[in-house]
Design a protein that fits this description.
- The chain has about 400 residues and is an alpha+beta fold.
- The chain contains 16 helices and ten strands.
- Strand 9, helix 10 and strand 10 form a beta-alpha-beta unit.
Length: about 400
């Protein structure tokens, strides 16, 4: 038996290869028994095959018999090859059949049924290895059909390019014309995310809410997020109020904690991709860094985003960790002290001893002693603005370490 396939092909090419290697005549059908592809037919093709190919689907009377014989139930339950005996009284020849299924990546979820491969016997018996050929063809057909089903439409490709997730550069007039949206003028770009990612159902609901808010809203799901473009929109207040309503509704009705970032105003459609990247920078930052709840704008979150990214860069450079803090941490561990907490509060209170002491619930003189001890251990002067800035950055950088 020859090798079935060693490269890419389409369903018609696959049907012909199966016929050549397994013997007989092949048809590939979708889950509703519509014929997707078939191999060449000879004089041995029975009336059922001829009717199926000419009508592009299995005849209803035959499909009903297959259900009565339990063939469809078996195809849904198993990945194995099913032998359907000949019925000379019905002028139906013997067939082998196998389902085309796409395994689910989610444990406990049944495979997705993509179709069926049918092999009709001709004048000669099937090849000895016909079942193995069908098993291999089933796996290849699943990949081909999955690619077809998952391939985005022309409009979807335009939207992906508009948001900058599929290559660089987009013909703005063409996109605006195809989507029937204005090419110029301010717009808003929004991003929604959730801690566990967004399911298809949640993304679909967000699309519905966006279209109800603006009929010309353009949405795109990508990865674990969904993005919304509101073309020709300039009111930050109205957009923010609507986004907060959506977040609150999901929280109340679905117990889903959404986070949202808003870029507004976006100059025009040419700036949408850049705005989407800025939105991602906000959504990539820790949720507790959002200035006001779970909805924020780029302007509100700029400080938190930039500080977070600076700290991320510093974490990739171990040589930029200040070793002088080791002495402070060692002292706290060895003396069951809390100098680190004291100096963090002191820095947060901008060096105001009395307000920091109140926050720590200690006497101001106690705090002054602790600050002097920190200076002795680290060799830093907390009267020096540069030392204060460096110490605060280093303490934040090492926030996960215990004293």
């Amino acid at each position: 038996m020859r090798v079935l396939l060693d490269g890419e092909t389409d369903l018609f090419g696959l049907a012909q290869l199966v016929a050549q290697n397994a013997g007989g005549m092949v048809s590939i059908e979708d889950p509703e028994s519509h014929v997707l592809a078939y191999s060449a037919s000879g004089e041995a093709a029975d009336p059922l095959r001829i009717r199926s190919i000419l009508g592009r689907e299995g005849p209803r009377d035959y499909l009903r018999m297959l259900r009565d014989w339990g063939v469809f139930d078996r195809l849904h339950r198993t990945d194995d090859v099913i032998d359907v005996p000949a019925h000379p009284e019905l002028t139906i020849k013997r067939r082998l059949a196998i389902s085309i299924r796409q395994p689910s990546a989610t444990p406990g979820v049944a495979p997705r049924l993509l179709g069926t491969i049918w092999l009709q016997q001709g004048d000669a018996p099937f090849e000895t290895g016909a079942p193995d050929v069908l098993r291999g063809a089933s796996a290849i057909a699943a990949r081909i059909i999955s690619r077809i089903l998952d391939a985005p439409s022309t409009e979807a490709l335009m939207v992906q390019r508009l948001f900058g997730v599929r290559g660089e550069g987009v013909d703005i007039p063409s996109v605006a014309g195809a989507l029937n949206i204005p090419a110029n003028g301010p717009a808003a770009v929004l991003g929604f995310a959730a801690g566990d990612g967004l399911s298809d159902a949640v993304a679909g609901l967000i699309r519905l809410h966006a279209s109800a808010f603006r009929r010309d809203a353009v949405t795109m799901a990508h990865g674990a997020r969904i993005y919304v473009l509101l073309p020709g929109f300039r009111s930050e207040r109205a957009v923010t109020a609507w986004v907060r309503q959506v977040v609150e509704r999901f929280d109340t009705d679905k117990s889903i904690a959404l986070h949202a970032a808003i870029a507004i105003p976006v100059a025009d459609l040419a700036a949408v991709a850049g705005a989407r990247r800025e939105v991602d920078r906000v959504l990539d930052s820790p949720a507790d860094s959002f200035p006001r709840g779970r909805v924020t704008t780029l302007a509100e979150s700029r400080t938190a985003v930039l500080l977070g990214e600076i700290l991320d860069l510093l974490r990739t450079r171990p040589d930029l960790r200040d070793p002088r803090l080791d002495a402070l941490f060692d002292y706290d561990r060895g003396h069951s002290a809390n100098l680190r907490d004291s100096v963090e509060v002191y820095l947060r209170e901008h060096g105001e001893v009395r307000s920091a002491a109140r926050a720590l619930r200690v006497h101001p003189n106690t705090l002054r002693y602790r600050i002097r001890r920190v200076e002795q251990l680290t060799g830093m002067s907390l009267a020096d603005p540069a030392d204060r800035l460096l110490l605060e950055v280093q303490l934040t950088l090492r926030s996960g370490e215990t004293g």
